[in-house]
UniProtKB/TrEMBL annotation:
Residues 1-102 form the FAD-binding FR-type domain. Gene3D superfamilies: Nucleotide-binding domain of ferredoxin-NADP reductase (FNR) module, Translation factors. Transmembrane segments: none annotated. It comes from Isoptericola peretonis. The keyword Metal-binding applies. Its cofactor is FAD. This is FAD-binding oxidoreductase. InterPro entries: Cbr1-like_FAD-bd_dom, FAD-bd_FR_type, FNR_nucleotide-bd, MRET, OxRdtase_FAD/NAD-bd, Riboflavin_synthase-like_b-brl. Keywords: 2Fe-2S, Iron, Iron-sulfur, Metal-binding. The keyword Protein biosynthesis does not apply.
Amino acid sequence: MSWHVATVVGTRELTATARELTLSVPGFAGALPGQHVDVRLTAPDGYQATRAYSLAEAGDDERVDLVVDEVPGGEVSPYLTRDARPGDQVEVRGPLGGYFVWHDADPGPVLLVAGGSGVVPFLAMLRARRAAGRPAPFRLVCSVRSPHDAIEREEIDTPDPGLEVRWVYTREAPPGWPAPPRRLIADDLTARGFGPGDDTSVFACGPTGFVEAAATLLTGLGHPPARVRTERFGGA
């Protein structure tokens, strides 16, 4: 798959560390919700660094929407979250990945389990579901450190028939929140209509440790491992 020259055409700050970037990518053939792209930067001395980023929105045009959360000490994410401006250029290759994908023709229930910026591919799925007007029931369980770290929380919390949302805060909960800060537990993943017997499609995305813990909880609840699709990320 060839590399395409991409031009930054828009940016938007989402949290203190996360930023949305919209790229114009001539020759990009569009993507399915859940797919990702490789982004490559080249330094003046010729040194190159490549990182994979999930697409925040799917479609069939030459536009790429990324949400990048800064990795302290990283080579690529600090540039994308702090320095990239409209008119700047990077290289993009993709779309990549055919396994971690939701198809809007699938009417079955979908359980999405996100850790931090692992919510990004699920934004693409939620937006595709909304655009298609499909009645497939969705449930999103999103674990974040604090309300300030929740990417696109306002959009996610917008009432949407057939969508259930559960937030889990690990370090700081909002004032008046009914539960103290804690890690993900099995009860968070249990809901009527989204169990192993409901033919539920399950997707889990986030840091490696989070995804491994979530997958253990999900299979412990009886979800067949073959129906639990995972995508994980970590330090380079």
